[in-house]
Amino acid sequence: MAAPSDLWKEKTEGAVLISSVTLAEAGVLAAVTIPAGYKDIVFTLTGRTVDVAVNDHIYLEINGDTALGNYSQEASWISGSVYDADEYMSGSNVISRFLGSTTAAGSAAGWQSALTCTFPDYSNSTLYKTWIVQSGHFRPGAATNSKGHLFHGFGNWENIAAITSIKALTFSGSNWACETTMSVWGMK
């Protein structure tokens, strides 16, 4: 059996950084252009929003497509000690593009969220595109409540076109906070 470090090397060998943006001030994360030539695409996001709430939600836009009917999702999450699962089928609402929650400005300073989303076979021209996402954050409020929120989801973009751009948006419409980072990797 291979050592854990060998397995990690095997999984990340051939990864090519396509884009990495860290905001110098609060703002919008621009859509990242995805070139051809990779097997899979992985994007990561760490940060928080400037929304006044304790948490905000992250959602996805592929190739500039905002039509809710083109996205669907299955998801499960744990918030504190509560487990829940939902299904958001095409056209139900923006939650069909949900990637998890993020810490917002109403949380104590220093807290952020983390997200990893993988698009296997992103350029296949005969099948809908799928994603697998895992994200989490703590949402400490003014009190000592530091309830965590762990999210796992699987979604579909119901289009056979290759993915050529990815954008991470906030549900509230608020800007991402300073030092939020989004990176996109191509996997050979």
Question: What features would you highlight for this structure?
Answer:
single chain, 188 residues, mainly beta, 8-stranded antiparallel beta sheet, 4-stranded antiparallel beta sheet, 1 helix, globular
Oligomer: single chain
Q: In whole angstroms, how far apart are the ends?
A: 24 Å
Task: Describe the sheet with the most strands.
Answer: 8 strands, antiparallel
Uncertain spans: none
The SS-based structural class is mainly beta
Strand composition percent = over 45%
Global Rg: 17 Å
The sequence of SSEs as H and E is: HEEEEEEEEEEEE
Provide mean pLDDT, rounded.
83
What do these coordinates show?
It is a single chain. The chain is mainly beta. The protein has one domain. 5% of the residues lie in helices and 47% in strands. The chain contains one helix and twelve strands. It has an eight-stranded antiparallel sheet, with no helix packed on it. A four-stranded antiparallel sheet has the order 2-11-4-7, with no helix packed on it. The mean pLDDT is 83.
Quick overview:
With 188 residues, the chain is mainly beta. The chain has one helix and twelve strands, in the order αββββββββββββ.
